[in-house]
Amino acid sequence: MSEPSDRVLIIVPAWNEARSVGGTVREIRSGNPLYDIAVIDDGSTDDTAEVARQAGAIVLQLPFNLGVGGAMRTGFTYAQRHGYTRVIQVDADGQHNPSDIDRVLEGLERADISIGARFADVGDYTVRGPRRWAMIVLAKVVSRVAGTTLTDVTSGFRAANERAVAQYVRYYPAEYLGDTLDSLVAACHAGLTVTQVPVAMRPRVHGTPSQSPVGAAIYLLRSVVALTLAIMRRPSRKAVAA
């Protein structure tokens, strides 16, 4: 367990990631054994939970698949109930480099939410076509909402302090892009601050990313709808207490 005065929880949402999650947990533990790791098994039908448990993680098993948003809200609730002061999300597929965890956490020294940005002049991660255009437009719109320049608002590699965790427990949508766009816009509307730090992405160890032209066009349309709904929800939000 990490020190009581500065407890860090690393949340790893995982759905059928039995081939990758063990290596991800072990790599995180080798980087800093003081960090606690909670794998949220999101209704997997393979051995994700058992593999994660054998690798040394705390495992929270959901009875059925809720999606990343539902898994993360489960993790944030666990973090709040157990007194963690900083929380960071790391994907189970190995694309997030554990060596960047400390750097993303350091962003919390100047903001409530710290995003590990993939398009900030570090690494060679690229996205082309409509998907890239959507990311640029979304980043510009959310930057205006956040009051700071952000280049990667759909990154799932992000950290939160206690204020942000409290906001996420209150509101963290499970629908499409809710875990990235909607949750970020809601946090800004609640008065939380956001920053970003550059990180390098790694290729998936297993599986294939979906970047077909049709998939990219669908991503563009759904992103615009998700962001529009997120901004329209503003009147129903209450500010997080300082």
Shape: globular
Strand order of the largest sheet: 3-2-1-4-6-5-7
CATH class descriptor name: Alpha Beta
The average pLDDT value, as a whole number, equals 85
Q: In percent terms, what proportion of residues is strand? A: 15-25%
Number of strands: 7
Q: How far is it from the N-terminal to the C-terminal residue, by CA?
A: 27 Å
Oligomerization: single chain
The low-confidence parts are none
For the largest beta-sheet, the strand count, sense and barrel status come to:
7 strands, mixed
Class based on secondary structure composition and strand pairing: alpha/beta
Domain Glycosyltransferase 2-like: 10-165
Protein name: Glycosyltransferase family 2 protein
Family: Belongs to the glycosyltransferase 2 family.
GO molecular function: transferase activity
